[in-house]
Amino acid sequence: MEGNGIDSLWGDGGGESLHGGNPPPHGGGEVRVFLRNQLLATFPSDGNWWNAAMFCAKCGEVWGKVDRGVEQWTVCNTRCERHGDAWRVGGSFLPDLLWPGSSGAGQVKWDVVAAMMKGNPLLAAHELNAHLAWEEERKETV
After folding, report:
1. pLDDT higher than threshold 90 for residue 22
2. Cα–Cα distance for residue pair 73/108, rounded to 1 Å
3. Residue 104: its pLDDT value, please?
4. Comparing C-alpha atoms, which of 112, 116, 123, 109 is closest to residue 33?
5. Helices 110-118 and 121-141 meet at what angle, rounded to 10?
6. CA-to-CA distance for 130 and 44, rounded, in angstroms?
7. What is the pLDDT of residue 18?
8. Roughly how many angstroms between the first and final C-alpha of the chain, as a whole number?
9. Which residues contact 63 (CB under 8 A, 6 or more apart)?
């Protein structure tokens, strides 16, 4: 695999990559959420200055992206849907969307989250399914 950083995983749009290349550039001012290559959601900018690549430390897959239309990328150590554990819901975008950078340092604005989910049924369905699967898996291990 050629290149380094996030482009070596997602490609630069000009050749082969693990995930079929970056999404086409957009003018900023909005956030786009991708599960692998499927666009799940778009909503107005949340004011953060980085994009997030959702990285599963268990299998090494970059399974999702939160593209804020800026140059800076950060890697969020957020497990994929196959590798959640007792403490983390696998495959959830919520750590980055609610607590940007997965740091927990930001203040959650629940009215913004509610509007985000209501306006993006694919994202809402994805989060519901990820959380239900995690709850079922936890029941089996307890």
Report:
1. no
2. 21
3. 46
4. 123
5. 110
6. 24
7. 33
8. 41
9. 35, 36, 54, 55, 56, 80, 81, 91
Q: Is residue 80 packed enough to be buried (19+ CB in 10 Å), middle (13-18) or exposed (0-12)?
A: buried
The pair of three-digit structure tokens given for residue 33, joined into one six-digit string = 């959420």
Q: Could you identify the residue written with the tokens 């957020």?
A: 78
Domain spans of the chain, in order of start: 5-141
The Cα 111–Cα 118 span in angstroms is 11
For the beta carbon of residue 54, count every other beta carbon within 10 angstroms: 26
Rounded CA-CA distance 42/65 in Å is 12
Listed residue (61, 84, 77) closest to 132, CA to CA: 84
Residue with token string 């509610």: 114
Judge if pTM exceeds 0.85. no
- Token pair 């599960």 is at which residue? 35
Residue-wise pLDDT tens digits, 76-129: 888 899 988 887 889 998 877 776 555 444 556 777 778 888 999 999 999 999
Encode the chain in three state secondary structure.
CCCCHHHHHHCCCCCCCCCCCCCCCCCCCEEEEEECCEEEEEEECCCCCCEEEEECCCCCCEEEEEECCCCCEEEEECCCCCCCCCCCCCCCCHHHHHCHHHCCCCCCCHHHHHHHHHCCHHHHHHHHHHHHHHHHHHHHHC
